[in-house]
Each structure stands twice: as C-alpha cells, then as structure tokens.
Amino acid sequence: MVVAYFGRAGLFSWQYQRIHFFLALYLANDMEEENEAPKRAIFSFLYGKDRSQRPFFHKQRFQFFRSMGYNARVSKEECEEIMAFNPELWVWGRERAPIPEGTEA
C-alpha cells in the first residue's frame, strides 16, 4: 500500500523524505488494521517518548492524504501489480486472514 500511496501523492523521487514512508505506513495501518499498536510503534520509532511531535505528524499525514486525492483504498489488482515487480520479496510472505464474504476488497 505504501508503494501505491507514493505513486498517488505525485511527488518527484527527489522530494520524498523519510517521513513520507512513515506517513504512508500510518495511513495503510488506518485502512487495514484494527490493532492500534503498530501506529503507536511508528510514533515510538520516530519520536521516542517525545509526544510533542504528534500534532505535527498528523498535520503532515493529512497533507499527504490530500496529495493522494483522499484515496487510500488499494485494490487487490493494484497490490498484485506492485507485487509482480518482485514476487519473491520477503514482505509478500505475510499471512493475512481471508476477507469475509460480502466485504469489498
């Protein structure tokens, strides 16, 4: 999803900074995960115990989301297209629970 988000944000490669990865990762967690722990881990990794940066992070997250046209949904087809670039990459091995019937993927 992070790769798809980068494409949607429309930044040139030289404009991307480390923070953009974490903004996209946070958005992906918002879209797909019920567990809040990974999002807390992102803050811990970025800022340690300093909570004062969180409001700025959320402002940047909103700006990044806006640059994506408020489109955070990534279709199964988009995921498969991204995965096809390197099908043996270790990250694709993650086991996921099946999507319940009647739920749009």
Could you provide a short overview of the structure?
The chain is built from 5 helices and no strands.
Structure write-up:
With 105 residues, this protein is mainly alpha-helical. The protein is 54% helix and 0% strand. The chain has five helices and no strands. The protein has helices spanning 2-9, 18-32, 37-47, 54-67, 76-84. Helix 1 crosses helix 2, helix 2 runs antiparallel to helix 3 and helix 2 packs across helix 4 (54-67). The protein is globular, with a radius of gyration of 15 Å. The model has no long low-confidence stretch (mean pLDDT 86).
Provide key terms for this protein.
54% helix; 105 residues; single chain; globular; mainly alpha
Helix content: 40-55%
* SS content category: mainly alpha
Number of strands: 0
Task: Compute the separation of the termini in Å.
Answer: 13 Å
List the helices and strands in order.
HHHHH
Number of helices: 5
Strand content: under 5%
Low-confidence stretches: none
**Rounded to an integer, what's the Rg over CA atoms?**
15 Å
Choose one word for the global shape.
globular
The biggest sheet amounts to:
none
Give the overall average pLDDT.
86
